[in-house]
Amino acid sequence: MVVDPEAAAACHRAGEGSELELVVGHRRDPRWGEPLRVRGRVERLPDGRFRYEGGILGGVEVSMGPSAVVAIGAVRLLVMSKPTYDWGDDQYRSVGLDPTAAKFVGVKNMMNFRFGYGDVMKGFFVLDLPGPTPPDMRSLPFERIARPVFPLDRDLAEPHIELTRR
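Request: output the structure for the sequence above.
Response:
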């Protein structure tokens, strides 16, 4: 999924079933990369409303704003107008996408994806991609943080954390 109101609007102008060339991504904060030019078919144009089923937001109704599901070959891209918290697969399911049927699912939440997707994933890859929340916090240029602190300082022991599922 990607937040790109301009791309979502272009899909809504084109209409369901339309083929279009689309420029997506990196408009909200271009520091992290260049927009990507793709060609795809608009499969769905949902209004973006959904309800979180789990996590701390369970039961809360929110909106991604006018959204689009774009088929780019075998890939399905969810283009949203507004950012929402990526706890689990709620956004995907709300637009008719079934993560359990997908070979790969892109998830941007490094903190909770094991909880949110634990029941549907068979494994995972952590990718170190450009952005404000990298998997290795040591790559960020912290300027005002009390030191030493894990995981920024290598000489500290890694804390033991147990994850439980209710």
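The mean pLDDT is 89.
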